Amino acid sequence: MSPLLQVKNVTKKYGGLTANNDISFDVSENEILSVIGPNGAGKSTLFKMISSFVPTTSGEVLYRGERISNLKPHMVARKGVVRTFQETTIFKSMTVRESVVVAQHLRAKASLAGYFWGSKTAQQDVDSFGRYADELLAFLGMTAISDELASNLPQGNLRALGIAIGLATDPKVLLLDEPFAGMNHDETMRMVDLVRSVRDERGVTVMLVEHDMPAVMKISDRIVVLNFGEKIAEGTPSEIQNNEKVIEAYLGSADDEIGM
Amino acid sequence: MMNLSAKHVLGVAIFLLVIFVGVPLFIAATGRWDFYFTLTSVALLAIASAGVWLTFYIGRINIGQGAFALVGAYVSAILVVKAGWSFWLSLPAAGLFAALVAALLGLPILRLRGVYFAMITLVFTQVATLTALALPITNGAKGITNIPLPSGVSLFGITLIPDFGEIENARMAFYFTACILMVITYATLYRLVNSRLGHLCRSMQQNEELASSIGVNITYIRILIFSISSFFGGIGGAMFGSISQSVYPATFVVKDSVDFMLNCFLGGLGYVFGPMLGTLVIYFGWDLLFEFGKYQLLIYSIILIVVIRFLPDGLLSIRFSKGGKK
Amino acid sequence: MQRRTLMKAALTAVTLTALQTTTALAENPVLKIGFVGVTSGPAAAWGISNQRSMETRAAWINETGGYEIGGTTYDIEIVSFDDQKDPKRAIAGMEKMAQEGIHYVVGPNVDDGAAAVRPVAEASDIMYFPYAFPKELYTAPASNAVLGMIANYQSGPAIYKHLMENEGVKTVAFIAANESDPLSQRDGGVAAAKELGLDVVSDSVTYQVDTTDFTPVLTPILRSRPDLLVLSGVSPANAPQLIRSARELGFEGLISTETAQDAGVLAEGAGDLANGFISVGGASTPELASPMMNEFVDRYTKMFGEYNDESNTKVYALEYILETLKATPEAIDDVSAFKASMDSFSAPNPYMNGDEQLTYVGMTSFGQKRQIAVPLVVNVYQDGAFETMFIARVD
Amino acid sequence: MEQILANGVYLGSQYAMIALGLTLIFALMNVLNFAHGQMYVIGGFVTYTLYGQWGIPFVLALLMSCITLAIIGALIEKYLFAPVIKGSSREESTMLLAAGIAFLLDALILLVFGEKQRGVPKIVDGVFNWDFRVIMPYDRILICVLAILSIVAFIALMQYTKTGRALRALAQDRTAAQLMGVNVDRYSMIGFALGALLAGLVGGLLVTITGINLGMGGPTSIKAFMMVMIGGAGVISGAIWGGFILGFLEAFGLAYLSQYGDITYLLIFVSLMIFLAIRPQGLMGKPWG
């Protein structure tokens, strides 16, 4: 079976700077794959290219054999590859439930005009959105805060809200942007379980970009390591732990890591 | 249509009763016939302001509505005077043409945000005025004058709309027309904001990146909204041209664009009916202060400053619920 | 919410109006004359000179016992409305005048305002005296507007002809602000100049009204070295700067305009460089001004601190209205009587020495008498004051 | 050609000064000050009254213009902008306030100084004429030099004084500045006063050449907005660039496009729109949002 997501020779240059150089790897269906690397390794640039938030300089990203790089972001989302953001990127003045309802935009059956006139399909959509939002929030354990304004939520909940918004679009692949950043150990472990259950119970393939080594080791099926814009290793957590290049890269920039 | 509570229905009914029955009775009783024009102006300016409000809803400060009102006024005037169209046909045409201009213009400029979008629309207002001065079809500096009043419309011999030139009280006719248009505009706006499109706009207003990550085609919605908003501007402008029976390059200028924006701010950006109230207060307020002679502007500006100082989120922020009445 | 506010606003309005009418009570019955024009913002000077000349005259009349029309002595009250140079407001202003029961209104000051108020004025039986030049306002079927001054297409040819004959002017250049009124006036001037056989060497240069430096604007036009530079429809604010820049650039020909200017403004803004500047004024040059004109200027100065020479022409509209009403008392609330009397009306001009008459003119330009006959006094600015260059008449 | 360049420098120097004050206020408080032009007009009228009417020496009159505007600016910031910024849930609300203040100042100018165009006697007589290639009256040259000196002084102030450094820190990042111990409220007020002072200074300088009238406020604000946008909003070097670019654009535009008559300005504005659409952050600014 061909891989779900393929990153093929992707390169990104900003002026003279090369953020990513000739990176290739695959993501298989139902897998949790993490991309790690020290600061400035080019993780977030790669992440943005996969979700088409920035264009590639060369190379391409394929989803089920279809190119999804260098499109408009919403086109990628429509194909089923959806990214999340770090906590500051939320719908500030919507409640949790409202956010999750809006995020189901892609699943709407009625047209915009249909909604305007209040057609029957639109009515059904609205009902189903509400039901699904409640179900999703229950699944994520967020029912208690569903009527809170997003701007009033604490950090940990914001991350969960981000994932809820992403899941509400009914994605095939969910791209998580540093889901564990700034969390303490307990919160991280809870998030690890949550991400697992997203994959296990909802059949969503997960790719994440992360700093937190222990969490990544725990959650990932496979890991891709970047350093200075290059891919230096790929493999299972145990393979990566014993990879000399990886150890060197991390030791070399140990100060930065502590600085985080 | 959907989930309008009894309270809402009552509110709407009272509102309609006031503007269509209450105001005419009040005017007849007090003899203040000049209120007809003032209120007609308020209704028309409120239509244009509704458009500005809508662009706020996708997070853009629009100081270009004067340009679209001018476009609308000219399109209608040219169609009526030079092509002999009925005013009632030229009215939607004016709105559509303004919407078309907005779509073409919006393609490059809607990528901008904040003051950048505000400034470019402000410059566009200047461009519209200067274009009207330079083009032959607009008659340049001389403007288009002697525009006939709206003609009648009849279907199968039944008069649907009387000829404004022949009826006794054209001001009243214009008042009713403007009010009907305003009611339609705000009903549309209300539905828009409370339907899915409105939710998507709100999501864009708050975070365009996140909106596009959940599959919202932000480019399309921005242009759609900007076109709708300019459609309102075009309609408002065309009606004004018809009332004054003349259009000049200076009929709508930068000051009007700024005024439309202020109407929205004053009423409150968070409320659908904010621009309507804002227009009423700003326009009517000026007229009421007429009695103060040369201190009119002074008093007017002081009141404005006091309001914004103590109600920075607009007049409607006194009420805490969201969404306006209806 | 807005219902309540609307009602409140409406109630306040009624109370205010009620108050106003009661305070206006005096011994004599009051005759209200309206003014709709711009008295704030960039063009405030136009309307204010208008409004103040009316108020000065009204106060003078009231002080001396009122104005007798048809056996009744009236106090004159001026009701002013600031239209902010916005045609939409101008309509509201005219509605307000109709509301006050006023049939005679001076203004508006600009073309678009004058055109916009026409439907209201005609519907509410208001005669209005705009300071705007579009001919369709005064030509039939329009019949309620009376041009309150001399149009540039009337004064222009007279000035050009005089300068051709007496100063040997052969080439002329035009410059105008990029706005409706000045551009229309420029087009009119160019046509008139061509008809007289003048060589128009430049007619395309325009400037924005907010220009602060006219050197770059004038540089190309002066390269064509015209004998006469016409500042079409120039505002009193821009005139001194234009004159100064042109002179500083070494221009030695004549400079003229067809609008009224203020000597004080010219003196402050351009000083001696303005000497020789030709403009159109009323009758306040010493040899023409009657004692009444001088008293008017005195009273105006006392009332408002400073006179404005633009009022020399603007004093006339009110005088015409009152004199015509005196001649035809029933016209006080019958506009058609006013119109009927316009053809034959004639009264001595109180502001000018000699036996000048106040009459309505305009047959040549409009085909009907819809213009007040202000003496076309062409002035030359010299060392802080205007001197009469020549006087002409409009028919 | 020399004449066009000279015109450009002259126009540019005065425009740059107007834009500087506006951009300073924008950088510090994120307020698009609609009343900037009115402040400029007040500066002009103060100098007119003191120098033109009362015969006080020009330099003193100019100083008084600056002081008056600094006080007005400080008061407006302290009692109007600061509380509104704190109390409002949207940044844009300040635009309504700024517009209200513009109306208020317009009304006050009309009541205090009247509606007429005002001018003062020339401060220097004579015209510099280089073989008819460059013609420039001496007073213009003087004002141009003074304007450039003021710009230099302003930059020096921002670079080398404690106040300047605090203001720059504030402009860059409000929260960070606060953490660094900058008294944000105080320096916002100082910054606003400084911006207003600049407007007053230009007004005072230009009254000797162009005179002043109450109508100059609005258009001046709009022109200043455009310069700020060309250079990049909230960037000081951007405002200077923007001022000079608009100055040269006008000088060249008027010289080469005048034959097309009425569309000269149309072309200038359209090219401005295209420029802004392509490069919204202006020449020097950072992209927004």
UniProtKB/TrEMBL annotation, chain A:
Q: Which GO terms describe its molecular function?
A: ATP binding; ATP hydrolysis activity
Keywords (alphabetical) are: ATP-binding, Nucleotide-binding, Transport
- What CDD domains does the entry give? ABC_Mj1267_LivG_branched
Name the SMART domains on file.
Answer: AAA (SM00382)
Stored SUPFAM superfamilies: P-loop containing nucleoside triphosphate hydrolases (SSF52540)
| Matching InterPro entries | AAA+_ATPase, ABC_AA/LPS_Transport, ABC_transporter-like_ATP-bd, BCA_ABC_TP_C, P-loop_NTPase
Residue ranges occupied by any ABC transporter domain in the UniProt entry: 5-253
> Gene3D superfamilies from the entry?
P-loop containing nucleotide triphosphate hydrolases
PANTHER family assigned to the protein according to its UniProt record, in alphabetical order: ABC TRANSPORTER ATP-BINDING PROTEIN, CONSERVED COMPONENT OF ABC TRANSPORTER FOR NATURAL AMINO ACIDS-RELATED
Supply the name of the protein.
Branched-chain amino acid transport ATP-binding protein LivG
Organism of origin: Litoreibacter arenae DSM 19593
Q: Where is the organism placed in the taxonomic lineage, from the top?
A: Bacteria, Pseudomonadati, Pseudomonadota, Alphaproteobacteria, Rhodobacterales
From TrEMBL, chain B:
Q: Which GO terms describe its molecular function?
A: branched-chain amino acid transmembrane transporter activity
Which InterPro entries does the annotation name?
ABC_transp_permease, LivM-like
Q: Per its UniProt record, what PANTHER family does this chain match?
A: HIGH-AFFINITY BRANCHED-CHAIN AMINO ACID TRANSPORT SYSTEM PERMEASE, HIGH-AFFINITY BRANCHED-CHAIN AMINO ACID TRANSPORT SYSTEM PERMEASE PROTEIN LIVM
Top-rank taxon: Bacteria
Regions that span the bilayer:
9-29, 35-56, 63-81, 87-107, 114-137, 143-161, 173-193, 220-240, 260-286, 298-318
User: What name does UniProt use for this protein?
Assistant: Branched-chain amino acid transport system permease protein LivM
The way this protein sits in the membrane is described as: Multi-pass membrane protein
Q: According to its UniProt record, where is this protein located?
A: Cell membrane
Sorted alphabetically, the keyword list is: Cell membrane, Membrane, Transmembrane, Transmembrane helix
> Does the keyword DNA-binding feature in the UniProt annotation?
no
- Name a single GO cellular component: plasma membrane
* Broad class of where this protein is predominantly found: membrane
Provenance organism: Litoreibacter arenae DSM 19593
TrEMBL record, chain D:
As for family, the record states: Belongs to the binding-protein-dependent transport system permease family. LivHM subfamily.
Q: Name one Pfam family in it.
A: BPD_transp_2
* First-listed, main subcellular location of the protein, grouped into a coarse class: membrane
Task: Quote a single Gene Ontology cellular component term.
Answer: plasma membrane
- State the organism named in the record: Litoreibacter arenae DSM 19593
> Could you tell me the membrane topology recorded for this protein?
Multi-pass membrane protein
Where are the bilayer-spanning segments? 15-35, 56-76, 96-113, 141-160, 189-212, 224-248, 260-278
Query: What is the annotated localization of this protein?
Result: Cell membrane
Gene Ontology terms for molecular function: transmembrane transporter activity
Which UniProt key words apply to this protein?
A: Amino-acid transport, Cell membrane, Membrane, Transmembrane, Transmembrane helix, Transport
Record has Manganese as a keyword: no
PANTHER family xref list: ABC TRANSPORTER PERMEASE PROTEIN (PTHR11795:SF452), BRANCHED-CHAIN AMINO ACID TRANSPORT SYSTEM PERMEASE PROTEIN LIVH (PTHR11795)
Q: What is this protein called?
A: High-affinity branched-chain amino acid transport system permease protein LivH
Q: Which domain of life is it from?
A: Bacteria
Q: Which GO terms describe its biological process?
A: amino acid transport
